[in-house]
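Complex record, two chains
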Amino acid sequence: MHNLLNRANALLAFTLWVMAAVTAACFLSTVFLDYSVPTKLSVKDVKIRNVMDYATDEQQADLATLNFNLNVDFSKLFNWNVKQLFVYLVAEYKTPVNEVNQVVLWDRIVERSERVVMDEIGIKPKYYFLDDGSNLLKHENVTFVLRYNVIPNAGYLRLVQSSDQIVVPFPSTYSTTRRS
Amino acid sequence: MDGMIAMLPAPLQKLSSHIDFQGQKVAERTYQVILTLAGIIGFFVGFWTQQLSYAIFTVMGASAFTALIILPPWPFLFRKNPIVWQTPTEEQETSPDSSEKKDDKKKKETKKTK
């Protein structure tokens, strides 16, 4: 500490220590909070087609199209340790072929900002809803649930499931398009 | 460090930033206290405003403020107890372990060893 560089070094090291401690305290102050939010989700216009699936042995697979309405308020989630949310919609169902099927239909990054309410109707999925086989027809309970990753400023990546989910029965006939 | 000092323009090379021992103790205590307080206050500032950036800025601001206090060798803070060096003595051509020391202000007993 006898010359300027020594003192500057000691000061910088201690500053970094204090910043790390403040960040750790920030993490501890938010780790036990409840991060689940209620959602209003509804799924409409479900149509299934049987399409050529060249990658499989059966060569045919069920492809579902739909659109959905989503109303969810994320405001209570954004505490000082949350940077952004990665939100996605999953369709889960069981078939004779597979015990568990989970298909992600849509996702979005919700960043920290003034207003983080989502109230949209007629949202189209981003990704195909292609079944592993032809077992979506007449399916009685396909469950749609919203899950999200809470991406923190300090800490681990948390996965949360929304407290609401809906069960949708799928149609019993294929829909035809102009081309098929 | 000496190489860096040699690169400075000539008037700056004579500047020294040394401080005495008591000053070093004061400087260390100063930054420890200020930065710890800044950490605690910064945590509450960040928690109240729910912005982690405010907490970090508080700590950084306190660090810059502390740098103004402790980095320059302020005479009124850090040079109040100057180190008293003893005056150099004549070389003695007899036994090297019996050198006499002359003190200006302080008297110290030196034991003569054989």
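Note: Helices of chain B lie at 2-7, 10-13, 21-49, 52-70, 75-78.
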